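User: I'm curious what two different proteins look like when written out as structure tokens. Can you demonstrate?

Assistant: Sure. I'll show them one after the other, since each token string lines up with its own sequence. Here's the first protein:
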Amino acid sequence: MAGSPEQFRGQSRLPRFAAPLRYDLVLRPDLAACTFSGSGSAAVAVSAPTRFLVLNAAELAVDRSSIRFQDWAPTEVAQFEEDEILVLGFGRELPLGEGVLSMDFTGTLNDQMRGFYRSKYEYNGEARNMAVTQFEAADARRCFPCWDEPAFKAKFKITLEVPAELVALSNMPVVKETVCGPLKTVYYEESPLMSTYLVAIVVGLFDYIESSTLEGTKVRVYTQVGKTSQGKFALDVGVKSLDLFKDYFATPYPLPKLDMIAIPDFAAGAMENYGLVTYRESALLYDEQLSSASNKQQVAITVAHELAHQWFGNLVTMEWWTHLWLNEGFASWVSYLAVESIFPEWNNWTQFLDETTSGLRLDALAESHPIEVDVNHASEIDAIFDSISYDKGASVIRMLQSYLGAERFQKALASYIKKYAYSNAKTEDLWAVLEEETGEPVKDLMTTWTKQQGYPVIYAKLNGQDLELEQAQFLSDGSSGPGMWIVPMTACCGSYDLNKKFLLKGKTDTMHIKDFAATQSGQNFWIKLNIDQTGFYRVKYDDELAAGLENAIKAKKLSLMDMIGIVEDSYALSVACKQTLTSLLRLLNAYRHESDYTILSHVTSVCLSVNKISTDANPDLSSDIKKLLIKLLLLAAKRVGWDPKDGESHLDVMLRSLLLIALVKLGHEETINEGIRRFHIFLEDRKTPLLPPDNRKAAYLAVMRTVSTSNRAGYDVLLKIYKETSEAQEKSRILGV
């Protein structure tokens, strides 16, 4: 290939005429100076005639005199910072086949929480630096020159030179250590094939606790010194998750060890680095005395999510960031599968509707985007790490599993993992395997959900013995978009034993219900579409059908998931002016005797949204609406009260926090005054049982309602608590008010 390095300027993807096979990296972080130096060699396969090697490098100073490919020095070296690429030109064509590229480089341990960066922590009252990596999506290039795209999988052999007293971790187990004066050199096993964004290094002072899976894989949780007791819960969840995923994917965990580590300064919630998963402290640590029930649940979900990635993302990796949802959607969905198995009393699949609701709300905006987004440059990747990739992605997977059946879906997924292990796949590859294994039109069905934004609302109208259905793209501004979907429809009538399942392939369809509804009459007659909310769509019922469902709610005839789906759909339709606020308030009143956390979490969310909308839109009516909403929630709130009860469930603990927070936000004076009273007792005695961690946010919110421009006392006291605590979850709780 003739030309100059300039021909590669502005390219969005690296050329494919050369690819790495193995990296051999030596890194020397200087934690005092916040710099690092490194030397690296990469075995490179040259597959087409070229005299150039093009790879990624950003914010690195490459020693040009050190660059060699085999014994050749480059005649041209160009580093295009705006494109984050390094172009090496040689005086003649490179020989086809394998050669070794080597070079030396230096960089900064930055304070941006990406690439190779520094994080601060305290040890014996002294501030210290640790070195941490965060390479997803495209930041390995800030640590070492590399082919920094997911499809360029290679093996990694890493060596670290670090202060002798520190713990140094990477993806693989340590082979050996040698100590020379104040420094030690740590050599790690060579990794299997993996993408650059999954490489990980952490250097600092840590303690750890460990356990093993049933197969004997060693699992450790690393924490700051003195905090290992807070890692026990995550360790237990991690071990059980690895065992569960091994069986579900019918493939063993691929690496000889798994470490999970809590990092004080961490931009993401967690990162699934192969064999060394990094977490924000609040996402990994759980303290029986200081953490809330919701913290516990979030730790479990996050750990399961990251460990699911060890198969779906790390073992089988997306070909390019367009297919990010394959990583995140599947990991989100499978995390609920794992936690449901480990903690069935949490009713986790019902709580999954929180994810579906989040996806539906974002995807109803005209500014939304498809699940699959064409990514043309690394700078565009971060924008798609959102509720569409995660929550909508997970929800359409649940919809597909429901349509195909759990057993068929699991078997096909295991085949997919086996077929693409240690390699890369596109969305279409997954559809092809699922279609081959099940015989269902998976590609045609799912393409309508992944390649266009939005989702439909299904209008359901009773016409004699027929149920007439019509789909239109739902938008929260009240308009309708041009979208059209193949919709997996489910319906039941008067009983979950009477159900139907079919595909809505066009704009309209008719379901004959004469035999379906023959045994139902009067107040017993109701039809529920989208059973258990497995479909990613909303339903607008005509008045007769809506009244039937309202009666079914009062009579507790519906599943928890369907109770949630009806209120969420009704709220969304009201916002879009497709039904009246009066009809929504009447529906909410049907939930006034409800006591289940999973339902009331959605009811309270809707109540708070209605309160905000009514305050903004019609201040004259807002006071009456607020009183109605408070009355709706007060019955359940009085039942759970402020004080924990012996033997109460995990969900009841979460319900108490949920309702107290909601009542404070709605301005319920009695709850606010009680929160302030308990807060003042807490100030005198931080261990008082009158304000356990689950109730603190409600009390903090109550205190903040007293804050004004002339009275900052409440704010100042909360700020003092924030500065004094070393617990990440307590800090998050205060920041959240």
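Here's a second, unrelated protein for contrast:
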Amino acid sequence: MRLLSYLLRSSPYIAVLAMLTAFISGIGNASLITLIHTALNTDEISSQSAWKFMVLVCFALTTAIISQILLSYLYRKAVFDWQLQLSREILKAPLRELEEIGSADLLTALVKDVTSVGSSLLPILPLCTNVVIVLVCFSYLFWLSWQLFVAMAVCMLIGALSYKLVLFKGHEILKLAREESKQLIEYFRLLTGGLKELKLHSHRRQAFLDKNLEPTAASIQRRFFKWSVMHSLTQTWAKFLLFFVMGLIIFIFPKYIKFDAEILTGYILTLLYVRAMLFSIMGAMPTLTKANVAFEKIEALGLKLIPETSQQSKLPDAIESWQSVELVNVTHTYYREKEDSTFTLGPIDLKFTSGEIVFLVGGNGSGKTTLAKLITGLYLPETGNLYIDGKKVVDNSREHYRQLFAVVFADFQLFEDLLGLENPHLDIHAQEYLTKLQLNHKVQIQDGKLSTTALSRGQRQRLALLTAYLEDRPFYIFDEWASNQDPMFTKIFYTQFLPELKARGKTILVITHDDKYFDWCDRIIKLDHGQITTKLKPVAL
């Protein structure tokens, strides 16, 4: 039912038309069996009956083809729409929540779960057709003999309950397999990302295979095998059940219920006809079960396939002029998985003014990157507030506030397309920066697209710096940018790039350990275990 609801909400007109043609096709198919049964019990078949039969066949065939074409369109459109909507949901969600969910879960939801939900559309309209056929045929059987129908229905109900019991058990196994699949994806990510480390250390490589990858893959294989066994049992039982019922009708029920040979013929003929439909209905259950598991996992992540409103909010522009950004009594607490402990940053009281260079220093794990994410509005403070020019940053203004910043984080992500940069001379300016960053011999720019990002770590950092320059935001933050640069570029960064940005009226916050260049900033902030311990002038610490 939830799948039908999502389908109707995402493509209401096409979905209704597809289901309507499926229902009509089902009625046409069911009418054929009643016509055939009548013809078998008639001494002479009239030409009118023959024409009626041909019309019904063409009608059922045409509506079935139309419903299948609409179904194919719905399937492709639904998967596309749902992946796009989940992408929007992810981009709207708070960064801290997304980091806690993890990239493996998000990728599984975007690719595997949405595909599982979409694949359930393939049997759903044929399922509607078959349900209509079965209902019409069963109504015909009830009309032939209600006593025989009740006896048959009781036997089929008992069989259906046993079928449902096995199906429920398979659903639980499938949920466990889905949980382990995200861990397997994470191991695959480690495998592809850690090729050098694994090749250089044979014991680590073997331990990774023996203790991580192989046990997880084997466990998933066992669970899917159990699910396949249960699936096979349900399918075999579905076939056997109908033959069992027909055997009761032929050999057992006549001893207790009086009916003539014509009714018996009608029951056997109809049951043989609906056998394929019943088998198709039961065969669709595992696919729908997988879709239900995918639904539950997507919803468990706090994401929705269908937006609550179709209204699109206006994209905010970057803040053109400002004087100060201030953090007042700001704190933020989060869980550190590696240390199995919580970490609290703050309370923090800081003020940044337009046109200054500030260095942020401190040991590993002191909270420097977390502070940068709080300053930029990516993390929400648990206590305290952010202010821009004395005005408090609230939920309605947070997105606008974030447009103040151009940031190069340590775990930056490059985009080959220079997206969102409205500049008629973008290629010219980008080429100038590529030359300044000594990347013009490796990377070219055309129509706002970089020719490649497959470079060394240090070169990729320079490309990230290029993107930040082109964004031309008032407030720049660099998180350990020079950590992978050679001494020459490190010196250029501190002695040329930063002063040039300051000369353009930009505010720069640099997270750094390079005490050699401390005299190139206006002030230094030292962070220790989440607390600001000193605010210094630019002298060596």
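A detail about the second structure: The domain at 324-536 is CATH 3.40.50.300 (Rossmann fold).
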